[in-house]
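Order emerges. One example.
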Amino acid sequence: MPMEANGTYTFTMLFEPAEEGGYVVTCPALPGLVTEGDTLEEARHMAEDALRGYLESLRKDDLSIPPCSALHFGSNAE
């Protein structure tokens, strides 16, 4: 998994238009991480919050962060 010197990870996030409007955001490397926003800006903010919470939960439960190979899904990433 790509990891920068400052200890941050890089994940592929998929932003897809929702049928009812807005955007649904998922992260293929992190099963169950799903959020949404009415605008692209709001969806990005919600994705950052969801990702932060997901990683904190993994750390709290002493679980490992998924390997790099899990990051290479889809082509709709922004």
The CA atoms of residues 56 and 62 lie 10 Å apart. Strands lie at 14-17, 23-26, 34-37. Residues 14-71 form one domain. The longest helix spans residues 40-60.
